[in-house]
Every structure is written in structure tokens, then in C-alpha cells.
Amino acid sequence: MASQLxxxxxxxxxxxxxxxxxxxxxRFDAAYLIVQQGRAxxxxxxxxxxxxxxxxxxxxxxxxxxxxxxxxxxxxHLDHAGGVGLLMSExxxxxxxxxxxxxxxLVDPTAxxxxxxxxxxxxxxxxxxxxxxxxxxxxxxxxxxxxxxxWHGRMLRFIDTPGHARHHHCLWDSTTxxxxxxxxxxxxxxxxxxxxxxxxxPTTTPVQFEPDALKHSIGRLIEADPQCMYLTHYxxxxxxxxxxxxxxxxxxxxxxIGQRHSALSADQRHQAYKADLRECLLQDLRRHGLAxxxxxxxxxxxxxxxxxxxxxxxxxxxxxxxxxxxxxxARQG
Length: 333
Ligand SMILES: [Zn+2]
Known about the structure:
There is one protein chain. This protein is 41% helix and 19% strand. The chain is α/β, with parallel strands linked by helices. The chain folds into 2 domains: 2-240, Metallo-beta-lactamase, Chain A; 249-332, no CATH class. A hairpin with a 2-residue loop joins strand 8 (148-151) and strand 9 (154-160). Helix 9 packs across helix 11 (299-332). The longest helix is centred in the C-terminal third of the chain and has 34 residues, at 299-332. It is globular. The structure holds zinc ion (ZN). Zinc ion binds next to loops. Residues 75, 77, 164-165, 183 line the site of zinc ion.
């Protein structure tokens, strides 16, 4: 059967499938389908434009739309949750399981859409995301830290994982001893795989990057002694402990970059952050054993450009928030 699956479906082990949502570029943005005793759950959805692939995946695996019990966005950023409303309109029995801070945004996506439009502009929003479909409130359930569920004999658990976003939870799957990590455990593009394995980098994107919280969340994921991590960008990585060490080190390096250049104008600072982030990541890729050819021929820059841009924005927002906080506590003190 596996040989007949469309090429955007990657069967992993233990009834877990990675589905390439097609968002932005190939092998960039995954949604997952977990299948247990003929029942199914999606983790993340990609955008509205990903929904046909997700429905096709059900069909290819011989699952009816009525077999889907849950749609579980890891957080409500649009590359993870933009398609949840449209997807659920096609899945009559599914409930959405979402972090408590994200629930209202599924029910009324107006604020989410406006916020993203402020960053990307109306034209880009239409092209990349389309109109967000609200989910009826009675089909949305908020999760809480430590919540467990016995899903047809498969034990699942949620934990609250702030640091990338305050509306982020991660899902533990006891069957495969893996976490569905959204963006909390960083990003790993398959183009950067080497003999040393996968390369994982943290994300500091806007607007809720909080390094201390992120490091704490990564520590909690590792405490469960996982065997693998299911990243949205992109797919499963093994050896979580080694990746966690790299993530913690890179978070510190990125924070140090954020603390430089404070004397520059906003635009100069943004350019300086971008240059430093690029250098930091390329240096680490070299350390990881990436073929020099992939750096000199522009492949690495091609894959990193979007993250370098967004991480520079996120660092600036975090630094400015800190400065405001220090300023207001100094005035109060
Ligand atoms: Zn995100």
C-alpha cells in the first residue's frame, strides 16, 4: 500500500504520517496524521491551500472523513493552524484541541488575520493563506498543561510550551515516544542532513519569542526521554538530546546577537542582525559537516533567508520589549 501513496505523504512508524502541506516550498511545512485503530487525528493543518492534500491523504489511507476525531494545531500561527477551520468543515466528527490562549482565535479568527495582515500585507495574505474559516465554539476544546487522554488505547499528553509563542502546546505520543513539537523544538530542513544526521535550529520569530521560556520548554520535552520529535518544519528527527544541546547553544548565540547593535537605527540594526544571524547559522552548518558546495552555491542562503529575516524581526521585538520593561521598572523604582 505504501508504494501507492501520493509522494507528499511520508509514512513514518507507529501509524504516524507526515504530509507535506506544500506551503511556501516542498518539504518546508508538515501536517501529521496519526492513525489508531481505524481512527485518525491531524496535528497541524498548514493553510487553507493545504486542506485538499490533507483530505487526499485520508482517502489514500482508506480513512473516511468521519474517522477523524481531532484536529490539533500546536499553536495558532497560520502555517500551522490557518487551515484548521476549513479542514474541520469537511470533518463532521472532529473537535479541535488547542492551547487555552489559542482557542478564541479559532472561533473568531479576525484578530489573527488582522495581525498577520499587518506583517505581510493584504495581497500576500490572500495569496498565501486565504480567508480564515471560523470553527464553531462547541467544536473547540482548550487543553491544559499535563492533560492526558486515552485515545483508543493510545496515551496522549499535552504540555504548555511557551517560548516560541504563548499559545503553544506540544503533544506527547506514548506509542512512538515522540513529541509533536510545532516550532518549540526549532526547525530542521532535510537539505541540511549530513553524515552527522539532522541539523536543528531554533526560531526566534515574532512576536512572542522569550528565550528563557523557550529553553525551559525544551528542557521539559527532553525530561520525558523522547525517542523522536515531529517538527512541523520539517518532519521527524531522532536523537532529541543531541538536538536539544545544539538548540540551547544556538538560542544563547542568537540572544547575544540580539544584545548587540543597540546604538544603531532600527533599520541598520535589522540589517546587522540579519548579517550576524546568517553568519552564526552558516558557521554552525559547517560545524555540522555541511558540504561547502551547498554554502557557496547559495543553497544554504536560499533555505535560511526567510528564517534569517523573521528571526531578526523577532529578536528586535524581544529586545525592545525588554528595554521597555527595564525603563518602566526604573521609573517605578
Ligand atoms: Zn510558529
